[in-house]
Amino acid sequence: MAASTSQNGIQLLLAAEQEAQHIVNTARTAKQARLKQAKEEAEKEIADFRAQMEADFQRKVAESSGDSGANVKRLEQETNAKIENLQTEASRISPDVVSMLLRHVTTVKN
Fold this sequence. Notes:
mainly alpha, 0% strand, V-type proton ATPase subunit G, hydrogen ion transport, transport
């Protein structure tokens, strides 16, 4: 009788161990499935964020390039004003420079 009771106890322990192993495997599978789902959700969020940032960037590029015509016109006006200023200054000091050069060229030093 003692042998059959110990045999039943061993069988009970083996069954409990198998059930525990089954529970652990089920939990491991569920954990892997949840990790995979979380990874997919994170990749989707990253893709959405990247698309939003790209759209913002493209919008800013379009806005700034729309102003580039105005920038080009403003730069041309500034450049023309500087050129005109240089020409005015050159014509103003040109006679003085010519007379100075003539004086240095024609002066003989011993």
